[in-house]
Amino acid sequence: MKNGFFRVGAAVPRLKVGGCRYNSDQIIGLIGKGEKAGIQILVFPELSITGYTCGDLFHQETLLDDAKVQLGRILEETKNSSCISLIGMPLGIDNQLFNCAVAIQKGRILGVVPKTYVPNYSEFYEQRWFSSGRNALRDTIMLCGQEVPFGDDLLFEDEKGEMCFGIEICEDLWVPVPPSSFQAMAGALVIFNLSASNEIVGKYEYRKELARQQSARCIAGYVYTSSGVDESTTDVVFGGHAMIFENGSLLCESERFLIDEQLIFSEIDIQKLMNDRRKNTSFMELWRDNVREFRKVKFEIEEFEAENITRYVPPHPFVPSDGSSRDRRCSEIFAIQTSALAKRIRHTGLKRAVIGISGGLDSTLALLVTAKAFDLLNIPRKNILAITMPGFGTSDVTYTNAMEFMKSMDVEIREINIKDACLQHFKDIGHDPSIHDITYENVQARERTQILMDIANKEGGLVIGTGDLSELALGWCTYNGDHMSMYAVNASIPKTLVSFLVRWVADNMLESKAKDVLYRILDTPISPELLPPDAKGEINQKTEDIIGPYELHDFFLYHMLRYGAAPGKILILAKKAFEGKYTDDTIKKWLKVFVKRFFSQQFKRSCLPDGPKVGTISLSPRGDWRMPSDAVADSWLSELESMQE
């Protein structure tokens, strides 16, 4: 498995109830389209050869025999197709009739899975015709001249043992513990559901949530399809609902109530799912007490080239692309930050906070959080001591922004110019101030932190950290300088999310005067401002010109830490996400920078102050990330080098 992607599809064919020949023609046609689309596994609706609503016609030998004949014709017509197709049909076996899913590939039947839970309530009368797969008396059957595995204990696994999938049928999903739960624990990474599922008011949302939740609980792909409008008859109406989920996220979905056939497809990231399962040590706990034996049917499948993925890859994975979702996310994150800080203030018994304000985004967010926490605790905002500390690199723009912002927040303001203190320190350590090297920069950062810490001691306050997750990942902070605080409220907030949070607060929680200042801060380039401004007095040191675009680094960080993705895979995903914005060489260049800095700067993360975890990724050594400071990046860099040759 090169990069872990498998392309899966769900079909909603045209259909005639009882018209096996017509139905098989539609199935054959869609398998051909699926093959051309590069679909590796394609699922059809429940009883798709006969139709689901045949009623007592299921007791007619003519229908049952014709279904087998048409299955044979499908096998013959698709014998050159490498696409695995899952087709629904009734099968009479040992004095019983079973509602089955038949898995076929290249003219061969891989296996047959009978439906486990047979509904018999409301508009469903399936027990009138069908038996549960649990009542099967044998584990192989003869079908279309082939002896094939049969039973509800089948899983399907590729020859390399990398991709495994399971099958359930319609009602199986609706029971308290679906068969797919056990299939997933036994190794199935993708579940396919052949369904009929008629439409009534409210059922669409419920069905969609069932599939979403099951994909999340099983940490699996879930590919679902149900009968289209042609299945509608007598008192029931069908809409043709197909959907593909990956661990709770919807990848694609059909449009219901269309007359024409539909074929949807996307790619499931198997590596991502396996990584999540390994991390979740509770995943296999139920298995210990409910061990089920599964037989694994082997199949061969061609490797999918990840460069051809069609699924959407968000360029800013920390930030929801949907506006309403983004607003909810920002509201929740801001609430987590403020309540966490409020708890720390209550616990310490301190009534003052000390925070350095630069006029940049990070310190702006930190002050917004602090002000809200003080409001929650009914402590006057004047107890917040906001300090601006102009230095050699402070521009007129950021200085003005800082002053106006602090005034708008109604906090106590102090200005302490650090130039003389830094010049004295340069003299003490024998450093030429005309040499603008790392010493020149770090002296300023440490001087600012020393001022904040000493004032906090003097005033009985808590130093609020302003640094963010992206800076910690890259080590873009001065050790024991801005790296240190007494509580780091932004420690789990990536740079790409900081701006959205600040904008959300501006739009939802502030009056016009403060809002205008925040908008100006949002438009200011990101800079540590440790080098003198240019001849025009403007910012001369732009962070992203030095270490690369934060949106790229946040993308790398997310996929490397959240899913353990290798550099090669991250590169492919980034090329898809930023297509047209960055060249391949640019992405490779900054990915190499990210890997080098991430490994070399772990020592800074090993001694971080406390700070609230707000998302799935945290670099706290006490929380999510435990990495030795002396680990080497050789394997990661070697993979990147081999890709550049």
Task: Using brief descriptors, characterize the structure shown.
single chain; 645 residues; Nitrilase/N-carbamoyl-D-aminoacid amidohydrolase; Rossmann fold; 2 domains; 20 strands; 17% strand; elongated; ATP-binding; C-N_Hydrolase_sf; NAD_synthase; ATP binding
Query: How would you classify the quaternary structure?
Result: single chain
How far is the N terminus from the C terminus? Answer: 22 Å
Number of strands: 20
| Rg result | 30 Å
Helix content estimate: 25-40%
Quote the CATH topology of the largest domain.
Answer: Rossmann fold
Low-confidence stretches: none
Counted by DSSP, the helix tally is: 20
Could you describe the largest sheet, including whether it forms a barrel? 7 strands, mixed
Tally of distinct domains? 2
Catalytic activity: deamido-NAD(+) + L-glutamine + ATP + H2O = L-glutamate + AMP + diphosphate + NAD(+) + H(+)
Enzyme class: ligase
Protein name: Glutamine-dependent NAD(+) synthetase
Pathway: Cofactor biosynthesis; NAD(+) biosynthesis; NAD(+) from deamido-NAD(+) (L-Gln route): step 1/1
Describe the structure.
It is a single chain. With about 650 residues, this protein is of the alpha/beta class. It folds into two domains: about 5-310, Carbon-nitrogen hydrolase (Nitrilase/N-carbamoyl-D-aminoacid amidohydrolase); about 325-645, HUPs (Rossmann fold, 3-Layer(aba) Sandwich). The protein is built from 20 helices and 20 strands. The protein starts with a strand and ends with a helix. The mean pLDDT is about 95. Catalyzes the ATP-dependent amidation of deamido-NAD to form NAD. Uses L-glutamine as a nitrogen source. InterPro entries: C-N_Hydrolase (IPR003010), C-N_Hydrolase_sf (IPR036526), Gln-dep_NAD_synthase (IPR014445), NAD+_synth_C (IPR041856), NAD/GMP_synthase (IPR022310), NAD_synthase (IPR003694), Rossmann-like_a/b/a_fold (IPR014729).
